[in-house]
Design goal:
It comes from Ignisphaera aggregans. Keywords: ATP-binding, Nucleotide-binding, Transport. The protein is α/β, with parallel strands linked by helices and 261 residues long. It contains 8 helices and 10 strands. Helix content is 35%, strand content 25%. The strands form 2 sheets. It has a 6-stranded mixed beta sheet, with helices on both faces. Strands 2-1-4-5 form a 4-stranded antiparallel beta sheet, with helices on one face.
């Protein structure tokens, strides 16, 4: 499997209002392979979202580099991003919201209408293209946000707690939907989540970030056949993975306490 994205010795430091420097990430290196779904889990404050923003080009690392394919630097238009909040513009219709990235990159939205309608059909929103965000449920809004992230056919899909605000049933429905869409689109995907079950169900590989400043403390290949059904959540294999990740998170908490003592 070829490498799609390479993170080299990524470090990130924030400066507080009183001038104190806080290291969030330190010398983190990671290869992301073409077409895989990589899950990133860890406790709050360990740098998961910071890492995703560095990959997206929203933040610059204090040290290190992000190399996208063939040694190129920077992700740019190759990435689609989806956050916990759908961030839909209330004065725009569903279709207009999906097409927004096309306007931002300076291309003609009319050339992407057919693709937008196709994506909406795939996520179960056929016929909703003229509705407004306030007419949709939270789950439907997240489906629109997913279509928006995919509209320009990104090679890389970045997901930051995309279903964290949804109820448990809707969240699991979105897992099944995302699994189908990612396989269909064939894009490399990075998923940041606090939900261990979500990471395991959706990912081909899970990385645990811990030991503040954040770095990789465990990496697990998920050998569960695809397509995955929700029944997989109740198998002994799945539960063994859950226990391994929980143990890794617990161990790196001890590491953090020791570093602060």
């Amino acid at each position: 499997m070829s490498v799609a994205l390479r993170l080299r010795n990524i470090s990130a430091t924030y400066r507080t209002e009183d001038g104190k420097e806080i290291k969030v990430l330190e010398n983190l290196s990671l290869n992301i392979f073409k077409g895989e779904v990589l899950g990133i889990v860890g406790r709050s404050g360990y740098g998961k979202t910071t890492l995703l923003k560095i990959v997206a080009g929203i933040l610059k690392p204090t040290k290190g580099s992000v190399e996208f394919l063939n040694g190129e630097n920077g992700v740019g238009r190759r990435a689609g991003i989806m956050f916990q909040s759908p961030l839909l513009l209330p004065w725009r219709t569903v279709l207009e919201n999906v097409l927004l990235p096309i306007e931002i990159i300076g291309e003609d939205p009319r050339d992407y209408v057919d693709r937008a309608l196709e994506l909406l059909k795939i996520v179960g929103l056929e016929g909703f293209e003229d509705k407004y965000p306030w007419e949709l449920s939270s789950g439907m809004q997240q489906r629109v946000a997913l279509c928006r992230a995919l509209i320009h056919k990104p090679q890389l899909l970045l997901l930051d707690e995309p279903f964290g605000a949804l109820d448990a049933i809707t969240r699991e429905e979105m897992w099944l939907l995302l699994q189908t869409v990612v396989v269909r689109e064939g894009c490399t995907t990075i998923l940041v989540t606090h939900d261990i079950r979500e990471a395991l169900f959706l990912s081909d590989r899970v990385v645990v970030i811990g030991c503040r400043p954040g770095r990789v403390v465990d990496e697990i290949k998920i050998d569960i056949p695809r397509p995955r059904q929700l029944d997989a959540l109740f198998t002994s294999t799945f539960n063994n993975y859950v226990h391994r990740i929980r143990n890794a998170i617990g161990d790196n908490l001890k590491c953090t306490r020791n570093s602060n003592s």
